[in-house]
Amino acid sequence: MSGGTSSENPVEVINKLIGIERELARELRELGYEIMQVKPTIATLLIAMSYDCDKHTVMLESLRRILSLVIEVPIKHLADKLMAIIEKHRAYEEMSIKFLEGLLNNPVITKEGKLIINLILEDERRHHEILTRIHQALVEGKEFYI
Which domain holds residue 83? Predict the structure, then answer.
């Protein structure tokens, strides 16, 4: 891959990126589990990053569909189910954020523990923002953007 120049077909580049993300996910997970008994914090971060690679794969697959001009079927028949899931997830995110913020002040939490908590908080806050935007788009008809 030449770095994604404008002369390359974007769908072909995305296909390559998907393959790379899948391989990185596998390698990070394997290494993480291999060193778990020796370096649990580092292992945990590597495994967590592998899930981000999985997430990137799903997002790249969606981008590929968008760029391939696949017309998506309206999801009106799924709106109620989607709204229930979003509400449940948003409630969990709020509870989780409050709990983890309180845990940061616990004197038994080490620097490594605080690192992991802060990384989770970053994800939870980002997820909460994304879910809020999705909710606004579905319920209030606002334009979806991040």
Answer: 74-146
Q: For 104-134, what is each residue's pLDDT tens digit?
A: 999 999 999 999 999 999 998 888 888 878 7
Which of 90, 86, 18 lies closest to 57 in space, CA to CA? 18
Residue pair 120/100 in contact (Cβ under 8 Å)? The answer is yes
Among 52, 63, 55, smallest CA distance to 13 is for: 63
- Residue 106 phi, psi (nearest 5): -70, 125
80 in the same domain as 59: no
Please state, in angstroms and rounded to a whole number, the distance separating the CA atoms of residues 131 and 91: 10
37 and 78 part of one domain: no
> How is residue 105 written in tokens?
């002040």
Report yes or no on whether pTM surpasses 0.70: no
